[in-house]
């Protein structure tokens, strides 16, 4: 169900009465929170997001679902502040010193799209151009926009990229939670800041103000990037007024999990068995390929293996950054990888796509 805007009266822009929509949003939110809480009792990594996603998806199989329009943006604002707060001055210097590795990891991750695109195209039966945008590990929104500019099938790309994020979210947190040592990456770990409500609310207001112009220019994840940039600047200069309490980070997980779960309606999952299967299989191949490359790159440059595996994982930036924070896996380094890849996707995917067409690689 869409969560479109309002016209100021009692009818939404998508024609749905407000009074019909609000109970659906509240039921979805309550179900998502319950699902997250149940998995949290089992002490699973990223429990609030995965539980919220699975519970919302189960509800969506039987009835319409919707999230409150402001829930995900609000969650991303506090997530951005929480992630940015991990960048103390020494940590920022360590991440900046790793910039060549971040750039290399981003380019390699994008280049794997050429490898996986052929597999995806063969499995899904799509044209090579669409297959390329389905296979490149960029964000769902970024790749959909780039696919539209290249006149590829936006619906196919959106479905494939969404399935890829779901595969990564359901596999990487539990595997890394089981295999990776936590909190042993001193140069990339900042001390936790106590939270102070007036300072936190002031940061949230300033972060929201920074996010608005980023949204207007069409930047992906503006609600997270604006507050994150603000918190990085404050933390790196020693002027951070407050940390972000765990309660708000858990609420952000629920908001993002519910947003992912609303996409998993019965019509979505049954619309194309072949495409969904191709997305799952190609995502598994891409994940294994990038994990192996990350392992080798970490060994070569002397950086922590789990952080590089998560940094090069083909998942969305908010989801992977949250995983890093939940597992205490060098959050700034992981976020640095995904920020770098987001920038490189905007700069390189279009030219690489055109070059691949000219060279017959697609």
Automatic annotation (TrEMBL):
<feature type="transmembrane region" description="Helical">
    <location>
        <begin position="102"/>
        <end position="124"/>
    </location>
</feature>
<feature type="transmembrane region" description="Helical">
    <location>
        <begin position="154"/>
        <end position="175"/>
    </location>
</feature>
<keyword id="KW-0472">Membrane</keyword>
<dbReference type="Pfam" id="PF05145">
    <property type="entry name" value="AbrB"/>
</dbReference>
<keyword id="KW-0812">Transmembrane</keyword>
<keyword id="KW-1133">Transmembrane helix</keyword>
<feature type="transmembrane region" description="Helical">
    <location>
        <begin position="74"/>
        <end position="95"/>
    </location>
</feature>
<protein>
    <recommendedName>
        <fullName>AbrB family transcriptional regulator</fullName>
    </recommendedName>
</protein>
<feature type="transmembrane region" description="Helical">
    <location>
        <begin position="38"/>
        <end position="62"/>
    </location>
</feature>
<dbReference type="GO" id="GO:0010468">
    <property type="term" value="P:regulation of gene expression"/>
</dbReference>
<dbReference type="GO" id="GO:0016020">
    <property type="term" value="C:membrane"/>
</dbReference>
<feature type="transmembrane region" description="Helical">
    <location>
        <begin position="195"/>
        <end position="211"/>
    </location>
</feature>
<feature type="transmembrane region" description="Helical">
    <location>
        <begin position="276"/>
        <end position="309"/>
    </location>
</feature>
<feature type="transmembrane region" description="Helical">
    <location>
        <begin position="130"/>
        <end position="147"/>
    </location>
</feature>
<dbReference type="InterPro" id="IPR017516">
    <property type="entry name" value="AbrB_dup"/>
</dbReference>
<dbReference type="InterPro" id="IPR007820">
    <property type="entry name" value="AbrB_fam"/>
</dbReference>
